[in-house]
Amino acid sequence: MYADKPPMELKRLSDTRWACGYFSVHVVSRCLPAILKVLDDITHEPNPERSLDVSSLKGLVDFQFVLMLCVFQDILGAAKCTSDILQSPNTDLAKAMDIIDTIKDRIAMLRSREEDFEPIWQHAADIVNDSGITVPDVGHKDLIISRRSRRQIRAPERLHDSILLELLVQHRGGNTKEEFRTDIFYVILDTVASELSDRFTSGVMRGIHALNPANEGFLNLEKIKPLAKIYSANLDDLVHELPQAKRL
Questions:
Q1: Are 210 and 217 contacting, i.e. CB atoms less than 8 angstroms apart?
Q2: Buried/exposed code over 52-67 (b: 16+ C-beta within 10 A; e: otherwise)
Q3: 68 burial class (0-12, 13-18, 19+ CB within 10 angstroms)?
Q4: Domain-wise residue ranges, the chain
Q5: Count of H helices and E strands in the chain?
Q6: Which residue, 178, 209, 155, 205, is CA-closest to 67?
Q7: What is the per-residue DSSP string for 85-97?
Q8: What pTM, to 2 d.p., does this model score?
Q9: Spacing of C-alpha 226 from chain mean position
Q10: What does the pLDDT look like over 54-84, one tens digit per residue?
């Protein structure tokens, strides 16, 4: 099916390496038509148990599945570029924080500008076109983008003889374009932004870098303050001690 292209392989997933996640998502999105063809071939094999398992697996590959692929391809792609730069031996801590701030800005922009979601949606539509999956009408706000049926919400049996004064709340599963953007896409962005903030605290990183004599901001009080506060250092003493330490 892709005789004129080099082979692509899935990499082992890692909880700490962003690049592994990006390569896996990239390979699946690029080779989805071939993957679906293999699943089709397996469903016609004489082994009924295996055929049933594959049919169930194939049933999960719908527009929402492809849309999730495109979302993570976009986010993990930006994370991979950041990871590659951070691993460079020429990148100091100050530059590293500037790079982290760049990806944070990218996440914030995706979160605040609805029009930035459109290229991701269109990319998913292009993939499902190539893969033979039904493409929804992108202009229909109430469009169901997942073939999986919604469960009918019911009151618990213990409430059957009771009068309900409030409506039962049913969690939306991202079945329309608007629901997907607000209930899934934004939640993913918020989670990524939170993880970046937890793992990379700019003040502390720059404070550590200010302890390096090769840094232009070596022993700069303003840069060291966030780090000093963590260790409960006396800032009044540092005002006098840092200028003397520079002379040593």
A1: yes
A2: eebeeebeebbbbbbb
A3: middle
A4: 14-140+173-193, 201-248
A5: 11, 0
A6: 178
A7: HHT-TT--HHHHH
A8: 0.66
A9: 29
A10: 888 888 888 889 999 999 999 988 888 878 8
